[in-house]
Design goal:
By secondary structure, this protein is an alpha+beta fold. It has two helices and two strands, in the order ββαα.
Length: 83
């Protein structure tokens, strides 16, 4: 499942540089996660780095983007494939 950032985000800038897939960017009011790029760090780390570092715990699973670990690994492989 892709993750999402809720409106409880305080824009602390901790998550964005830690995302190995560059899935996190500043939105209109707070950071947002692109579900097409989010692999929950599968293929990179044992746990999602944004969740581990978030000081306000505002990064839950996005219920609109349900994916298995295998699906996340396939997304990781697509994102990291060289053209």
């Amino acid at each position: 499942m892709a993750l999402m950032i809720t409106d409880e985000c305080i824009n602390c800038d901790v998550c964005e540089p830690e995302c190995p897939n560059n899935a996190i960017a500043m939105g209109a009011e707070y950071y947002e996660i692109d579900p097409g790029k989010c692999t929950e760090c599968v293929g990179h780390h044992e746990e999602p780095q944004c969740v581990a570092l978030c000081p306000v715990a505002c990064i839950p699973v996005n219920p609109q983007h349900v994916e298995t670990r295998e699906m996340l690994m396939q997304k990781y492989l697509r994102l990291t494939a060289t053209a």
